[in-house]
Amino acid sequence: MGDNEEPQDFIRVSPEKLSADEVSQLVVSPSCGAVSLFIGTTRNNFEGKKVVSLEYEAYVPMAEIELKKILSDIRQKWPTVKHIAVHHRLGSVPVTEASVAIAVSSPHRNDSLDAVKYCINALKATVPIWKKEMYEEEGYTWKENTECFWRKKDDK
């Protein structure tokens, strides 16, 4: 691959286990000095309750459309960004395992760092992926991301 390689977008929403290595390798480019990564993992607690795993469900075709929009926004805001990879896991994600992995390459670090932060925030706000927290004690709760656009409409 030369330096004139075309920018590429890699999107995957599936039950496959996520790999930080895999997403970072997808975006590496000879013309880029930065690869920025974000890995979102399941933590073991929420508001004092002990969480054992998270379950993710998605309307996959719609999730992919929304992710493509986010990636196209990133390319508008940060034109030097080269490659972008966003992988989101579905199904059960045990504590410490990754539910989302995002990697962005750019010639210099600021653009890829800013783009990764924008990407995870936009993903949580607009992509139809639902999270169910599985607790040790009393069952589970479906969680909406507080940023979700579909919440804001009904909240008075």
TrEMBL record:
Keyword match Cytoplasm: yes
Q: Which InterPro entries match?
A: MoaE_sf, MOCS2B_euk, Mopterin_biosynth_MoaE
The pathway that the record names for this protein is:
Cofactor biosynthesis; molybdopterin biosynthesis
Q: Which GO terms describe its biological process?
A: Mo-molybdopterin cofactor biosynthetic process
Query: Which Enzyme Commission numbers does its entry carry?
Result: 2.8.1.12
Single GO molecular function: molybdopterin synthase activity
Q: Where in the cell is it found?
A: Cytoplasm, Cytosol
The record's SUPFAM superfamilies line, in alphabetical order, gives: Molybdopterin synthase subunit MoaE (SSF54690)
Binding positions (substrate): 108-109, 124, 131-133
Q: Which reaction does it catalyse?
A: 2 [molybdopterin-synthase sulfur-carrier protein]-C-terminal-Gly-aminoethanethioate + cyclic pyranopterin phosphate + H2O = molybdopterin + 2 [molybdopterin-synthase sulfur-carrier protein]-C-terminal Gly-Gly + 2 H(+)
What cellular-component terms does GO give this entry? molybdopterin synthase complex
Annotated keywords: Cytoplasm, Molybdenum cofactor biosynthesis, Transferase
Q: Where does the chain cross the membrane?
A: none
Function (record text): Catalytic subunit of the molybdopterin synthase complex, a complex that catalyzes the conversion of precursor Z into molybdopterin. Acts by mediating the incorporation of 2 sulfur atoms from thiocarboxylated MOCS2A into precursor Z to generate a dithiolene group.
User: What's this protein's family per the entry?
Assistant: Belongs to the MoaE family. MOCS2B subfamily.
Q: How does it associate, per the subunit comment?
A: Heterotetramer; composed of 2 small (MOCS2A) and 2 large (MOCS2B) subunits.
Q: What else is known?
A: This protein is produced by a bicistronic gene which also produces the large subunit (MOCS2A).
Name it. Molybdopterin synthase catalytic subunit
Source species = Pyxicephalus adspersus (African bullfrog)
Q: Which gene encodes it?
A: MOCS2
